[in-house]
Write a structure and sequence with these properties.
CATH superfamily of the largest domain: Lrp/AsnC effector binding domain/regulation of amino acid metabolism (RAM) domain
Oligomer: single chain
Shape: elongated
Helix content: 25-40%
Distance between the termini: 7 Å
Pfam families: AsnC_trans_reg (PF01037), HTH_24 (PF13412)
Largest sheet: 4 strands, antiparallel
Keywords: DNA-binding, Transcription, Transcription regulation
Strand content: 15-25%
InterPro entries: ArsR-like_HTH, AsnC-type_HTH_dom, Dimeric_a/b-barrel, Tscrpt_reg_AsnC-like, Tscrpt_reg_AsnC/Lrp_C, Tscrpt_reg_HTH_AsnC-type_CS, WH-like_DNA-bd_sf, WH_DNA-bd_sf
Structural class: alpha+beta
CATH class of the largest domain: Alpha Beta
Protein name: Lrp/AsnC family transcriptional regulator
Number of domains: 2
Low-confidence stretches: none
Order of helices and strands: HHHEHEEHE
Number of strands: 4
Amino acid sequence: MTNSLDDLDRRILRELQDDASQSLDEIARKVGSSKTPVWNRVRKLRAAGVITRQTVLLDPEALGLEACFFVLVRTAAHEADWQKRFLHAVRARPEVMEAHRLAGDIDYILKVRVPNARAYDKFYQALISEVSIHNVTALLSMEEIKATTILPLDEGTA
């Protein structure tokens, strides 16, 4: 799909990212088109893998998940078996909102949402019981300044 998004595709995607619960009629009106062409483009974007799924966003604090930790993981092990066990452990933990393998001194960074520090410690203890980790640094986010799921879709995008 690279290099094949036109302006209408980008406008439709912006609307869907903003509120995917909008009706096709609402989206069509906002992007200056009609319902059928919008529906056809949405189907095309899904088939191409540009739109992967629709979901709802929940407020973590409203659900009691007030603590957000960024967990920096350094490992001395880089064998395939260790990585397989680590990835399985991370993917199986619902507290892990994001996980990234990094270049540089830190091997992995995890975004972990829990109710409090005690819950983080339980998460940490469970993780290290499943897989050996050389060094872990946990950073507590004091304030979320910006969080978005909306990707920038300017003229240079796709």
